[in-house]
Design a protein that fits this description.
2 strands, 3 helices, mainly alpha, 36% helix, Histone, subunit A, single chain
């Protein structure tokens, strides 16, 4: 599939990317190269191939999902530059 400069300009406009007119042919060629590569990938037979999350098979560590209050308010507020009444104090920005 080949992309012309008009299509490249339209894609750039939709992506809100300013592209100078003299750069459009190069951008169109780059889009065409990307689409050619995708077409090559579509030719690969992947039937029976399991999807991968990682190159090494591993299971994620899991823990019991339990609701707690955290009970760490003092620890969380210990580094706050200004904390009042158990909350972060920030300057007023809206009148």
């Amino acid at each position: 599939m080949s992309i012309d400069t008009d299509t490249a300009a339209r894609v750039a406009k939709l992506a809100r990317i300013r592209v100078e007119d003299d750069q459009l042919p190069a951008l169109a060629q780059e889009f065409s190269n990307i689409l050619e590569f995708i077409e090559q990938l579509n030719e690969v037979d992947v039937d029976g191939v399991e999807p991968m999350v990682s190159v090494t098979p591993m299971r994620l560590k899991r823990r019991q999902d339990g609701v707690t209050d955290g009970n760490q308010q003092d620890k969380v507020l210990s580094n706050a530059p200004d904390a009042r009444e158990g909350f972060f104090a920030v300057p007023k920005v809206v009148e």
